[in-house]
């Protein structure tokens, strides 16, 4: 259409991986880092450690993104996930205070802490994915079973330094999300306990959050309750959307099949110089 353009980058001799999908491409809100302003934000992409033989975004795409100096990319370690996308463990939500936004990070440690509390309260037999037993082998998982997996994950995460700490609301806070080991021999991991709430669709103050189907305690999903307690004080509203059969069972989430039409910047962003 008029005033619309696109660019295509394809590798000629390089194999592509899941990290080349654009669930692995995020952009932060406008930020200032060490006195340098980034009025169009920073590009975030998932990668492996530089010294490892893990997956990385194909070079032709990485080179193209790095050429966009005005949004100087930041690479985050995401190859510990089975799909390996940066949007599986980090996102940004708007706020009306002076900070203007919060970065949210998924935290297996926060999930472990929450499940441990419920277990001590005598809720260790609470069922996850209630009514969704056919969704997968994890459909009838109990808190007690999930605790064993999370404990193993926590020890491995501590060695790798990949878990986000549970912080106060002023810093955004860790979101309780559980990641389970998928292929231990290949050191791959996948979010199999519950749909990661972090992969949400953001409509101003309304958040379309994947319904986690966590343990129901006192008639309410404890993961939903914890998520609301972290985000509602920021003036945000959580709308939990079921996507188990449509996306989660196929290693995706609600944002994989939805999009949002945004208002462009009022200034001529294409004139911004690095």
From TrEMBL:
Ranges in a coiled coil: none
Classification via InterPro entries: PAD, PAD_C
GO molecular function annotations of the record: calcium ion binding; histone arginine deiminase activity
UniProt superkingdom: Eukaryota
Pfam family, one: PAD
GO cellular component, one term: nucleus
Domain Protein-arginine deiminase C-terminal: 1-134, 190-271
Protein name in the entry: PADI2 deiminase
Organism: Glareola pratincola
């Amino acid at each position: 259409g008029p005033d619309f353009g696109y660019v295509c980058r394809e590798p000629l001799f390089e194999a592509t991986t899941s990290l080349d999908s654009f669930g692995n491409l995020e952009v932060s809100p406008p930020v200032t880092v060490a006195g340098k302003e980034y009025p169009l934000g920073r590009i975030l992409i998932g990668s492996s450690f530089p010294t490892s033989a893990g997956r990385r975004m194909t070079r032709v795409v990485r080179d193209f993104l790095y050429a966009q100096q005005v949004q100087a990319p930041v690479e985050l370690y995401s190859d510990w996930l089975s799909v390996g996308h940066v949007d599986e463990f980090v996102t940004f939500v708007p706020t009306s205070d002076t900070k203007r936004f919060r970065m949210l990070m998924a935290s297996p440690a926060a999930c472990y802490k929450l499940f441990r509390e419920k277990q001590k309260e005598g809720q260790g037999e609470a069922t996850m994915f209630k009514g969704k037993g056919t969704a997968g082998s994890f459909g009838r998982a109990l808190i007690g079973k999930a605790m064993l997996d999370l404990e193993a994950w926590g020890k491995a995460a501590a060695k790798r330094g990949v878990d986000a700490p549970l912080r106060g609301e002023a810093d955004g806070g860790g979101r309780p999300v559980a990641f389970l080991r998928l292929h231990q021999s290949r050191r791959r991991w996948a979010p199999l306990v519950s749909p990661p709430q972090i992969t949400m669709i953001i409509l101003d103050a309304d958040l379309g959050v994947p319904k986690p189907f966590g343990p129901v305690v006192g008639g309410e999903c404890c993961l939903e309750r914890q998520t609301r307690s972290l985000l509602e004080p920021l003036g945000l509203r959580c709308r939990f959307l079921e996507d188990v059969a449509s996306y989660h069972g196929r290693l995706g989430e609600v944002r994989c099949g939805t999009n949002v039409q945004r208002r462009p910047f009022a200034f001529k962003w294409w004139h911004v110089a690095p």
